Amino acid sequence: MARSVLVTGGNRGIGLAIARELSAAGDAVAVTYRSGEPPEGLFGVRCDVTSMADVEAAFDKAEAEHGPVEVVVSNAGITKDTLLAMMKEDAFTDVIDANLTGAYRVAKRAIRPMMRLKRGRIVLISSVIGMTGQAGQANYAASKAGLIGFARSMAREYGSRNITVNVVSPGFVATDMTADLDQEQIVTRIPLGRQAAPEEIARVVRFVASDDASYITGAVIPVDGGLGMGH
Ligand code: NDP
């Protein structure tokens, strides 16, 4: 039977590529979208991950359609870049709320049904910036680094239930999030000399969510063209 999968922020960018990849691999995929329309050909549920009620409702709908969620990919994320000296408290707490507390809300709702199933895959999308830091992104880096400790704690808590929790850590990916950045300046720092396509992140997520990755948990998997090498 097809696995029931939920991908947050699955309406565009990396999340959409992950949803399409898992769907093509035979999974029954639900994607959350916060604004606009659900993507064509995928089961969409409206959800803002800054609301626990939204997260609960999204899982309820995904479960009603596809059964208990066995694979969850926490991908939804935002940036609010500015140097610390200029950073208002809202810019810090909003980014933490969406990127880190959002992942908490999603994992919290996912974990009990996975415990009942006695299997599960939780994949959190972090960023190379969580390890290396980045000027202008103290809020974002803190949120993405936080995901690592969060994932590793869950990996310890639920490993005995056959639930793996891993972090995929992309580098510089061609999506709306990076469209306004100085491409040339960043690409010169990447050993592979180019941005990633969202599909290159999605294929790694497909692997860590698969049976082939049955002995991987608490891992941080860089998919960054060498940008964060050594971190
Ligand atoms: P995009 O900006 O293209 O897409 C972000 C997605 O997250 C959208 O679907 C958006 O929904 C959703 N989202 C944002 N906030 C919320 C929220 N509060 N509730 C629900 N959904 C929300 O980003 P990417 O595809 O580039 O990024 C996806 C993930 O990958 C993020 O976590 C990002 O930090 C991470 N990442 C990206 C990198 C890159 O270079 N692009 C590098 C490393 C990590 P909506 O359409 O409604 O706004």
UniProtKB/TrEMBL annotation:
This is SDR family oxidoreductase. It holds the Pfam family adh_short_C2. GO terms for molecular function: oxidoreductase activity, acting on the CH-OH group of donors, NAD or NADP as acceptor. SUPFAM superfamilies: NAD(P)-binding Rossmann-fold domains. Transmembrane segments: none annotated. Keywords: Oxidoreductase. Belongs to the short-chain dehydrogenases/reductases (SDR) family. Residues 3-171 form the Ketoreductase domain.
